[in-house]
């Protein structure tokens, strides 16, 4: 059952992400990216990470992508401004590079050893990580990075205002 | 469920707290300052850096981790923080007159400089890949914005966009490297990574290898090493000049801080395996930087390639490794901070509003127009080229010496040859300044240098000569900062 | 049964698609979207490792949360830069944004 869900969702994710990078229309591109993110959220649920699936949809597909769409609409891009590279040579090298990387990473991941003996143990009955265990980690062990993340968001706000505001 | 609140020692992160709080304070007070009083934001920011510096002195000789092993204070990190804070201090001073001249004096600029400094300090102190990564992002995001701070200037916009796109691309690789290491070790804490690598036969695990390689890509981007240097020339040329000096000093040192920490201290047992790759990178970085610099006609672009070349020299120290290698790298980065900021201060002093005067011809005849500036520039260029009795010479001497001691004579020969090449383009400017008449210029008025810029020039000249003639005190400081680790 | 390798393969494919997009797109927003795709691929890896390698520690999920934060920060700043560029260059094709020689 899980393998079926996984296959369908993974297929959707791959097709949509290919559409993201070849689509000529920026709005289509952004919508396909949203579809990719939603399908990844389903995979997160399969991986016992419901909270992450939620924020993947709320923050990623919701907030970040809406920002993208908003800017695309604001700029009113024409189609010919958005299409991918037409020069053959560059395309060829891009395909070559990504393909080599694909083979490389796949080899590494299949040959490499993971620090675990549970790798192939399948669906052991771990409790799905809800909000509480994550929150506990965030506010105890990961307190410091959590505070840093807030600094990072502050920097991003200041940066966005500095860059985009007409008069400072 | 029991919540165990981790022990937190705020004293250890006092410098970071000071820098962060002052950055926020500037953001809060700046809107209430009238246009004439905006300079107070700048004063606040250098005061913050001085206080953080003093707080940092008190952390010397301390070795302690806090926040559940996320944040480590040791002499290595403290020494790097001295470099960052000194660099930021000088940059803030030279920024004041520059921003006034270009009429872009806004408090956000200084706030972002402080945030960026905070990011660098985290890179030096982070003992968990999460913290190192967040520090890197805080530093980079501030820099993307600072590079585009001259918002009406097209070159500055372009620099910002290129820096951002390539930086984010490199971040993707860095993340993939982190995830691979996490997958093979099961933790992102450097301490546990060290344990895992030493206890298991990690050298045969391809996953750690690939992770280390991808981390090298991510950090290699920040330190501007070949082949991840494509962004450097455009960003250096387009960004506002004080920011160019800032990028070449602080973030480069910060990238090295994290790179040395991760590679030399965590991947020590597999050192011989990755040394070959860094060897090639170092040779390429030195050669490409120096050879392309020969062909430049813009001084900012030339200094950009020279900055690539200098990253190559520090990589030589990384290849050498060991206590002498790392201490020579620290000494080199300290020396480079002062000589590079000094050179950029002269570049800024020659500019006018809206015209930066960064073509090489603008330097011809500087010797007669302003002898003092020309002499100072000569000192900095000599130091960059590595002539005695300047800091640059001693720094190169120690780096190459440590490499010879570790048996990398071939790399040292490449390095020395490269230093010889670099003499040509540095001396060309000296020749232009003293041997040639000024080209016909409309503004042959006297060059006025702001008080703060004079201060920066004095400090950097003193530092360059001090480290060149009496290097012993600072070198022993650098040695003391790594001895705790080895 | 799905194992770790299924997820890793999917993530690798997405990562490489993202890289291909960065290399071929000529438009700043297109490149930014491809970079988001790369970050998402890394996220799958983190969550999958968290599930299979450290099933009790949740480290990977925490890291994934931080990556989403960072993606948000980068997207905000990036889009602001794109807006600025659009105002000054009247377009966001990176081939045209090239007043300095490469």
Notes on the structure:
The complex is a heterotrimer of chains A (168), B (486) and C (102). With 168 residues, chain A is mostly helical. Chain A contains six helices and no strands. Chain A has two domains: 1-104, Up-down Bundle (Four Helix Bundle (Hemerythrin (Met), subunit A)); 130-168. In chain A, helix 1 (2-22) runs antiparallel to helix 2 and helix 2 (26-46) runs antiparallel to helix 3 (50-75). The longest helix of chain A is centred in the middle third of the chain and has 26 residues, at 50-75. Chain B has 486 residues and is mainly α. Chain B has one domain. Helix content of chain B is 74%, strand content 1%. Chain B contains 19 helices and two strands. Chain B has helices at residues 14-29, 39-57, 75-102, 107-125, 129-147, 154-185, 190-199, 206-222, 232-238, 241-266, 271-293, 299-320, 322-350, 366-369, 371-385, 391-405, 409-435, 451-469, 472-483, and strands at 64-66, 71-73. A two-stranded antiparallel ribbon of chain B has the order 1-2. The longest helix of chain B has 32 residues, at 154-185. The model of chain B has no long low-confidence stretch (mean pLDDT 90). Chain C is mainly alpha-helical and 102 residues long. Chain C has a single domain (4-89), classed as Helix Hairpins (Orthogonal Bundle). Chain C is 75% helix and 0% strand. In chain C, helix 1 packs antiparallel against helix 2 and helix 2 runs antiparallel to helix 3 (59-89). The relative contact order of chain C is 0.13. The mean pLDDT of chain C is 88. Chains in contact: A-B, A-C, B-C.
